[in-house]
């Protein structure tokens, strides 16, 4: 799959549910309305959809959400997609999770062939963790993270940099990740979906985060890539990597190799644009995958050049949907 700008699409992110057991303040409002079940693809349909993308050249699949591990029986999907890794049809199957259910599932994920996972963690302070996630318990999440480590999964911690939210903890997070052998990625808040709060009050440019970290840590730019949009540095004192995902201060679209499909089978060719393609109708219209495959081909021919995120007091969200719909 080559898009109109010559980029090969090799990375599919699949949101397996729009539901989540947390309500992070920058991500969702507290009173979210979730989709009715009939609109959601079954696990078998999600697997069929992934299979079509793999036949078209996708080499990496990331399951996300919502919270992927709250979807009932999601481990059966993980196990079936894991077979594609074992057969060599896929280079990598991975997952982004908030770790609340990870103590239960870490071992199963490793057995299915998952080698690395991303875990979202914005604070190591229990009260603050609860304030940011509204419903979260830090001890449960730490237990999940340690279960992942014990199961042999390589852990990358994702932290959204929040002005006055966690900026005084960034050094501690670097230190903690160093102690446990985890990489760490900082993310800028993106204007996605209405959250009933002023995003300019949360937004912290990562250029500032990096220059503050440099007061304490020796950071060296490195070429390391994971197929995602982060640029990485090595921390001399811990030997670990720090990634920076900067959709606002630096546009990262030139090297975009990915598309996203939601749990309703809607394909978004860009995280920051509204244009989408309905894959559920062709998927359900025929038992053969011909209609589905032509819908995918047609959609890829419309992949836009990039997004255009702006955080401004008067600006509307760049897109109406929340990150939890498209999958972060
Ligand atoms: N529930 C899983 C988790 O917590 O990792 C997967 C889905 S969550 C939407 C994926 C990532 O998106 C999380 O790291 C979250 O912090 C991030 N995220 C959500 N809304 C965001 C926003 N508006 N700007 C930047 N990152 C956001």
UniProtKB/TrEMBL annotation:
It comes from Paramagnetospirillum kuznetsovii. Its EC number is 4.1.99.22. The keyword 4Fe-4S applies. [4Fe-4S] cluster 2 binds at residues 253, 256, 270. Binds 2 [4Fe-4S] clusters. Binds 1 [4Fe-4S] cluster coordinated with 3 cysteines and an exchangeable S-adenosyl-L-methionine and 1 [4Fe-4S] cluster coordinated with 3 cysteines and the GTP-derived substrate. This is GTP 3',8-cyclase. Catalyzes the cyclization of GTP to (8S)-3',8-cyclo-7,8-dihydroguanosine 5'-triphosphate. Pathway: Cofactor biosynthesis; molybdopterin biosynthesis. [4Fe-4S] cluster 1 binds at residues 20, 24, 27. Keywords: 4Fe-4S, GTP-binding, Iron, Iron-sulfur, Lyase, Metal-binding, Molybdenum cofactor biosynthesis, Nucleotide-binding, S-adenosyl-L-methionine. Belongs to the radical SAM superfamily. MoaA family. CDD domains: Radical_SAM (cd01335), Twitch_MoaA (cd21117). GO terms for molecular function: 4 iron, 4 sulfur cluster binding; cyclic pyranopterin monophosphate synthase activity; GTP 3',8'-cyclase activity; GTP binding; metal ion binding; S-adenosyl-L-methionine binding.
